[in-house]
């Protein structure tokens, strides 16, 4: 084998070894301390984010900067002392690696102040930060520099396996480097691909730019790890080409594992870093085994194996998961958090197996140098396995977020004719509203639609809000925001697909006997028995997770026809519900067998929640369908049938910033529905007892009838969201929302809590009122007045001071019996 020309590099002089156990004891204590500070700190920071999200509070931007500074000080201080004070080369090497890891962790954690919705910007900043840190660490003055061999070329150990050239001298380049990847580097690539393998099964990629930036961030962290755990690090543990398997694998693996823990803690937005905290530390032992294998070949491994192994391992959590979906909001079902846990556990198991396997095969005293051909075959086999897993059981393709482009000009709905009272007048107004909305969309969107189509960005027009949904990342968003006809551009969140759908929800309690307690509390059963009104002739529209159309309490109430059901997520032609939420809420509105307030009313449905997640466009899909239903495969802008619109809508959902909405995102939609004479009833939210927690559209809007929740004792529940909203007194009313029994998929029943449960009962009361007096249909002002004037007092918990009683319980507890009597008298 040809040797490199030129004089050999001089060995780096190493300080004399320090005697006594104290440096080692200090190093062990510092390593344990670093892990005990880092891991709980990261988990706590994520939990704080989740609590803030679940309770509806404003995002605590300062959480992660505080975690960054505290962790960097608590870990970096002791680590820096180890790097500077002891005379032991091994202890100082550990201190340098941990100090670099602590600084990287602090700098990367600061980036989480960026909103999660801007994930591409975060990934770009993360990649740049890691690259700059790598450059800075590589150029630190006084940092030990170690050549490829830490000395001149040395003969192979007597037990070494000859290289491909058949000679018995060590190669003159690092075992992991050179123009072609060496055997050790190929084995590192194989290990990285093996750790990546589970993620390609359970995860899915985002958009193109998001994926590229995630790959760059993972690569940058790999480069940084390669510097921190490169030749200088291993030379401190075992100088020169000395082969000490136990020291390199066990001691070096532990020290490298702590370093990887620190790096993993900074690699990813809140939630995405948690898998790395589990799967990266065992790879430290893999790196130790690779270093032993390289020294069997006569040279240290160099930084390349570290770069490949760490970089490939981080691609999984960075590129194949969406941090916004690693949330407690989805933890109750087999959704993204479940599959992230599965991927993390599988990757951890692979990492442990690699650590044991590489340690046994490569780090034996007489193992010999690995052959490049064998290593190449192993890496090739893993690459093929990765490809097959991604294409066959995985979710190939890109699933990035879309954009909702809201135009400046919205339809003018002023001056609508009053028309005749009742349904005839309502139908005429709905038709005119639909005509104006579509005309405005066609007139103002044409040029932008053509441009987006030419750019292959797949535009979808909307008319209820004059807007267009389109593909595109930050660059497209910036370009669209600068166009004169565009008011603003929202991120339209899109959940990434799962490897397997969660089992459909099933009710596990029997049907109630007689009217449920909540139906009796508001007097709906008296309306049936004493006034003979059940809601017949009125149609209730439900936008939710779906409806079990075969449920015995709901099957008979379905309006039928080809325009009474719409599923923009899965395009199912018949009513169905995987999650159960929509079946439960609709059951409280129109369910039979004593669970629904208006059991004689008909219903239509639309799916705007998939896996308990929605987006501005999906909410618009369903609200448009409610204004002007259309047949399967129809075009909402041309095939809508406004005269088939339902009368009252129950909406037990809200669109938070996490899903892409801003406060005004759906305001034109509810205004148009109100102008058409369609009453929108919406849940206040479950973010109580915080004041001002009625915040997510559409609950704060003045033309929406917003509903809070009380318990059996007519007492406001702890979870019910409160005002003030800053625009209108909210909620408008309260209804029973604690331990409410209703229908659930599969023919059974379930008991749930929430303002979601209270909302459909108010929609059911409206159906009873309009059934009793059809002249009220479409008369929203008069209907609201009757509801508020007939409401009964609700109890406010002691100490609740959110501006006043109206900001807690509105006009009070809805009274179905009194409201229907007043409607009939009118």
Automatic annotation (TrEMBL):
PROSITE patterns, sorted: SUBTILASE, SUBTILASE_SER
Compositionally biased intervals (Basic and acidic residues): 568-580
InterPro entries given in the database record: Peptidase_S8/S53_dom, Peptidase_S8/S53_dom_sf, Peptidase_S8/S53_subtilisin, Peptidase_S8_Ser-AS, Peptidase_S8_subtilisin-rel
Domain Peptidase S8/S53, residue spans: 535-794
Source organism superkingdom: Bacteria
Ranges for region Disordered: 145-175, 494-516, 544-583
Any one Gene Ontology BP term: proteolysis
Alphabetic keyword roster: Hydrolase, Membrane, Protease, Serine protease, Transmembrane, Transmembrane helix
GO molecular function: serine-type endopeptidase activity
Active-site annotation: 544, 581, 756
Record-stated family: Belongs to the peptidase S8 family.
Protein name: Subtilase family protein
